[in-house]
Amino acid sequence: MLNGLIAFPAVEGGELPEWRVSRAPVAYDDAVRVMESRAAAIAEGTAPELVWLLEHPPLYTAGTSARDEDLLEPERFPVFRSGRGGQFTYHGPGQRVAYVLLDLKRRRPDVRAFVAALEEWVIRSLAAFAVDGERREGRVGVWVRRPEKAPGTEEKIAAIGVRLRRWVSFHGISLNVEPDLGHYAGIVPCGISGPGVTSLVDLGRPVTMDDADAALLAAFREIFGDVAEMAGDPPELAGVELAGG
C-alpha cells in the first residue's frame, strides 16, 4: 500500500501525462529547450504533463549549488550550467534520464515531498531487480550498500535534480543502467567525495534499457498515477537533428 505522504496523484478526470521514450541520444540544450516549452504550456493549461525518457551524449551538468572545484577535468566533456537543483553530475549512454514535467499546483504543491516521491520511484524501480535502494539523510538521490567491497561502503546509483516554475516541475532523475562509470572521474559527483557510483549492470544485474523502462513505468504508476504511453519523441523536438545522427 502506498504511503499517503509519498503519493502525488493526478487530478481526477484530467488528461493523462504523456509517457515518451526517445530512442536516439538527445543533445542537452535541445532537451532543455523542449522542457522549457512544455513546462510553459503545462502551466498555461494548453498541453498535458510529460514524462520523457532519454539518453544524452557524454556531458557534465552543473546544478545551482555546483562548486567550480568539483569539476576536476573541465576539458573531458562539454559542461552545461543547469537551472536544476544540485551540483555536478554526469549524463551519457547507458544512463536512463527521465525528465518529469508535472503540475504540482494541481497535484500537491510540496517540493520536499515531491523529491521524496521521485526517490521512492527509483527505489521501487530498483526493487524489480532485487536491488535495495536507500535514501541518505541530507543527500538527495538513491544509494546502495556495497559491503563486498569494504564494510560500510555505499555507492550512488541514481541522481535527482529538479526545478519548478509556476509549480510545474522539470528536469528529474538519472538512473545508471550501464554507463561508463569511469566518466564520473572528471567530477566530484553531487559534491560528495568518497562514495563512488555504481549501476545495475555493475551490481551484477544484466538489465537492458527496455527492462529499466518497464520497471520505471510500473513504479511511476504506483506513485503518480496512470500515463498515456505515446510513440516517439515529444512533438516539441520535431525538426531537431538528434545527437545520434
Q: How does this structure look, described?
A:
- 22% of the residues lie in helices and 25% in strands.
- It is built from 4 helices and 12 strands; from the N terminus they run βαβββββααβββββαβ.
- The chain has helices spanning 28-44, 104-107, 111-127, 209-224; strands spanning 18-21, 50-54, 59-62, 79-81, 88-91, 95-101, 134-136, 139-145, 154-165, 168-176, 196-197, 228-229.
- Strands 1, 2, 6, 7, 8, 9, 10, 11 and 12 form a 9-stranded mixed beta sheet that branches. A 3-stranded mixed beta sheet has the order 4-3-5, with no helix packed on it.
- The longest helix is centred in the first third of the chain and has 17 residues, at 28-44.
- The termini are far apart.
- The mean pLDDT is 92.
Unreliable runs: none
Q: What's the β-strand tally?
A: 12
Describe the biggest sheet? 9 strands, mixed
Shape: globular
Structural class: alpha/beta
**What number is the mean pLDDT?**
92
Outline:
With 245 residues, the chain is α/β, with parallel strands linked by helices. 22% of the residues lie in helices and 25% in strands. The mean pLDDT is 92.
